[in-house]
Amino acid sequence: MSTTFRNLQIGINPVNFEKSKTFYEEILELPYIGVLETNGISLHRFSIDGSILKLLEDGIGSVEKNPLGGPTAATGLRWLTVTVNDLDRLFEKVSNAGIPVVAPISSDENGVRFAIVEDPDGIWVELLDR
């Protein structure tokens, strides 16, 4: 018998918690679940269709440990992909907010539309059109 995986929870230790929280909550509009206090740390949680993105508040993030530049700048988690139902509107909002654009809206060989932006910690966030 094989193991079944159902959803994913990802934790980010941001360089600047407030910038990252603003990016995910206000710019990308991820639904904020709330904060979970556990083992002396605060995890701010966002819902992504059954999966959860967690931001660590008051972590030990630093630019030296987490350089900007996406997957080629450092090891570790450097790229997230999420499916959205309004790519054009969301991409315009992200662009107008001055968020770095890695790849503007385009289509892959199967006609799937996508764009890639960079979060405040240099993690690429790929937005797939539903």
Automatic annotation (TrEMBL):
SUPFAM superfamilies: Glyoxalase/Bleomycin resistance protein/Dihydroxybiphenyl dioxygenase. InterPro entries: Glyas_Bleomycin-R_OHBP_Dase, Glyas_Fos-R_dOase_dom, VOC_core. Residues 6-130 form the VOC domain. It holds the Pfam family Glyoxalase. This is VOC domain-containing protein.
